[in-house]
Amino acid sequence: MPTAREIMTPGAECVGAEDSVLDAARKLTDLGVGAVPICGTDDKLKGVLTDRDIVVKVLGRGKDPAQTKAGELAQGEAVTIGADDGTEEILATMTQHKVRRLPVIDGHRLVGMVALADVARSLPDAKAGDLLEALSTD
Q1: Which domain holds residue 81?
Q2: Which PROSITE patterns does this UniProt record tie to the protein (predicted)?
Q3: Range with top average pLDDT, 56-65, 77-86, 93-102, 117-126
């Protein structure tokens, strides 16, 4: 089975916890991605900000994206996967935490992101279908 390092998108760029959600949205647009890791001034991963978070937690609640900090949307400790963890561990982590994207960590350093699509491409169809079903149910 392939490892996270083999299937991830390398070079993930963080948005700062003190950056505005508006700046984060611009970064998502510029990078052409649906999620970006949130990093603190200590260079530690604080969470992941998704385009859906911006719509539901900021715009949908009438908050000003220029005044709301990205770090305000980080919830608890970030769910991550190790760079050398295999697809079974990725599947288990995504399923357990109901997430479609995982930051990939090598030691304490962010080295990339693994998305549901990356995992699906590396798995037999049946396992990919099981993951999608698990993430699509409440």
Answers
A1: 4-136
A2: CBS
A3: 56-65
Amino acid at 55: V
**Which amino acid, 64?**
D
pLDDT of residue 75: 72
Does the pLDDT at position 59 exceed 70? yes
Give the total number of structural domains in the chain.
1
Q: What is the 3-state secondary structure (H, E, C) of the chain?
A: CCEHHHHCEECCCCEECCCEHHHHHHHHHHHCCCEEEEECCCCCEEEEEEHHHHHHHHHHHCCCCCCCEHHHHCCCCCCCEECCCEHHHHHHHHHHHCCCEEEEEECCEEEEEEEHHHHHHHCCHHHHHHHHHHHHCC
pLDDT at residue 129, as a whole number:
63
pTM of the model: 0.81
Across the range 15-26, mean pLDDT stands at 96
